[in-house]
Amino acid sequence: MSFFFFFFFFFFFSFSFGYTADIISTVEFNHSGELLATGDKGGRVVIFQQEQENKIQSHSRGEYNVYSTFQSHEPEFDYLKSLEIEEKINKIRWLPQKNAAQFLLSTNGWSRLTDSLPKTRVQQGE
């Protein structure tokens, strides 16, 4: 599934059926442009990887497929301030790559999490 289809699908159906948790709130490419991370209002991060044949052709459209998906933030409640903390991802930043591992930071404005990506593609189960 390409990134553009994924983006259109969730954007269209989020507004049509009221699924506001599926609305993309931030997008960030890694330093090489090979990986693309999106965060949504539900606290999920979806990582896309550029297709292999598009890396060779510099004039290609740049198709991206889903590489990995994970839940980064959950809704919380701060009892000291009587404040509900939403799970919406405000920003994603890729850390500079020092070895084969890829790391990214995600924040919901209240807490920051460091996530590591697997070196190989993760197969998503149904």
From TrEMBL:
<keyword id="KW-0853">WD repeat</keyword>
<keyword id="KW-0732">Signal</keyword>
<feature type="signal peptide">
    <location>
        <begin position="1"/>
        <end position="18"/>
    </location>
</feature>
<keyword id="KW-0677">Repeat</keyword>
<dbReference type="GO" id="GO:0000159">
    <property type="term" value="C:protein phosphatase type 2A complex"/>
</dbReference>
<protein>
    <recommendedName>
        <fullName>Protein phosphatase 2 regulatory subunit Balpha</fullName>
    </recommendedName>
</protein>
<dbReference type="InterPro" id="IPR000009">
    <property type="entry name" value="PP2A_PR55"/>
</dbReference>
<dbReference type="InterPro" id="IPR036322">
    <property type="entry name" value="WD40_repeat_dom_sf"/>
</dbReference>
<dbReference type="GO" id="GO:0019888">
    <property type="term" value="F:protein phosphatase regulator activity"/>
</dbReference>
<dbReference type="InterPro" id="IPR018067">
    <property type="entry name" value="PP2A_PR55_CS"/>
</dbReference>
